[in-house]
Design goal:
The protein is α+β, with helices and mostly antiparallel strands and 290 residues long. It contains eight helices and five strands, in the order αααββααβαβαβα. A hairpin with a 2-residue loop joins strand 1 and strand 2. Helix 1 (2-19) packs antiparallel against helix 2.
């Protein structure tokens, strides 16, 4: 536009110089007006250029700001992704820890159940022992009955003289009284099997009915078993065994030792039958044949 303005100005000056004073006033005024218009147009163009430069600078600044914002957003997004990955790893570790903790809790619960069961069994054993001690106080003080506990076995040992006469299998009145007291406790035990064991000394027996002490000890054990059954002890929990002179608790070289060896032992053992055959149930004692 500046070239146009210069050309127009030169043209007007040339026209004026050639026409001299005789130029028409109207034409002169028009030329001056054109000059003013051109100047105004030039200034307007300059202002537009300046405005465009300001606008361009502003847009450039906005672009830089947007670029910085994009960079910051990308940086934050990267941090978020890293944090997400970290949290995912921590979550996985927490799940593993939780599974481990749950496993330990289950183990502790199982251990606690086992301990509670052992505690219950111990309490039952203690109660059974205490009940027997209370029932048999007179016989224990007289030295005719002894009660012991060893390795899960509770044994009630009765000297033969309290139960039987020499070489006989018929119960004495004193023996019946003692066994009746025992039966009151034994018939309440639902988690025990009861083995009645007969023992003798090593002095040979001279009897047509009993060729050896083995037969005598077995017969005596069976007599006690039948008596206990008759007095309410579940027969499915009862068994009898005769050992003759083969499991002595003292020397047979003295009368005192032989007296200790002549005995009936009632042994209480844990009942493991239901662990092997859970469906097995004992028939009520009052329904058993007498």
């Amino acid at each position: 536009m500046s070239t146009r303005w210069i050309c127009a100005s030169l043209g007007i000056l040339f026209f004026v110089s050639n026409t001299g004073c005789g130029v028409d006033k109207e034409i002169h005024n028009r030329a001056l007006a054109d000059i003013r218009n051109l100047k105004s147009e030039r200034e307007g163009l300059k202002q537009q250029i300046k405005d465009l430069e300001v606008q361009l600078a502003s847009e450039k600044e906005q672009k830089e700001q947007l670029q910085n914002l994009v960079t910051e957003i990308q940086s934050q997004l990267k941090k978020v992704l890293n944090e997400k990955a970290k949290l995912a790893g921590e979550k996985s570790e927490l799940q593993k820890d939780m599974e481990t903790s749950l496993s330990k809790i289950n183990e502790l619960q199982a251990t606690n159940v086992a301990l509670m069961e052992k505690k219950k069994q111990l309490e039952e054993k203690t109660k059974t022992y205490d009940d027997l001690m209370n029932k048999m106080q007179k016989e224990i003080k007289a030295g005719k009955v002894a009660i012991s506990r060893l390795k899960g076995r509770m044994t009630v040992s009765l000297k033969d003289k309290i139960l039987f006469s020499s070489g006989q299998v018929k119960l004495n009145p004193e023996g019946k009284e003692a066994l009746a007291k025992l039966a009151e406790v034994l018939k309440t035990l639902n988690d025990k099997v009861i083995q009645v064991e007969g023992h003798t000394d090593n002095i040979p027996i001279r009897s047509k009915r009993f060729p050896t002490n083995w037969e005598l000890s077995t017969a005596r054990a069976l007599t006690v078993v039948r008596f206990l059954q008759k007095h309410g002890v579940d027969p499915s929990r009862l068994s009898a065994a005769g050992y003759g002179p083969f499991q002595p608790v003292a020397s047979n070289d003295t009368p005192e030792g032989r007296s200790k060896n002549r005995r009936i032992e009632i042994v209480l053992l844990p009942d493991h039958r239901t662990e092997i055959h859970p469906a097995v149930k004992s028939q009520p004692a009052d329904n058993q044949p007498q």
